[in-house]
Amino acid sequence: MTAERTPVETAPPEARAAVTPDDRLAGLVLRLPPSEMAILSRETRAEGRVSHRAEGLIDEAGFTRVPSHVRGRLTEALSIISHQLRGTGPRPGVGAKSGDTRVNLGAALARRDKAEGGRSGARSMDRLMRAEPDSLMTELRRAVSVVNSVNLNWADLIRAAATWHRPDDRAKLQRQWARAFHEELRATRPQPASTPTGTSPDQETP
């Protein structure tokens, strides 16, 4: 059984050592002020500043011995997250406790399709299932744009960026996203309150 993750912001000192680098990096970017979010966002970056700022966050989170192609994907992940979150109010934490508002990317894509009656979420999910390391960040950026929510599981996006080149880790995340996607699609929608026998829905009961 997998141990429950502890939110970075609320973890006691003795528990913080168990928090993974992807959780730590998500926590760091979630706490950035809007001005730094703008620096990390691809739309408003100044030449050289994004890479420099991202490098500092990546190292601080504990990704100190990763190859350059992984650092590149992590930098892109920070850009995706900061672009989605900049200008928002108080942001959700990165923990996975009961009641957490963070949503698995697969479930979020399914909710989008259920809400709109379309298939943009399903198409994004299909592309993520086929994404190679060199196309992953493009597909993640598209998926986040489709969902258009601040309440995603951002640590999972960072985990994907850090491990997608390893087939077993990639397959594990793909299974998690696919399972959440299909479970959300199968979820029963709330049913209307039952109507007293002999009373039509349009009639008022005495």
Automatic annotation (TrEMBL):
Question: Would you say which domain of life the source belongs to?
Answer: Bacteria
The cross-references to Gene3D superfamilies, in alphabetical order and at most eight, read: CRISPR-associated protein Cse2
- Spell out where the chain crosses the membrane: none
Query: Per its record, how is this protein called by name?
Result: CRISPR type I-E-associated protein CasB/Cse2
Q: Where is the composition biased (Polar residues)?
A: 191-206
**Region annotated Disordered, chain positions:** 180-206
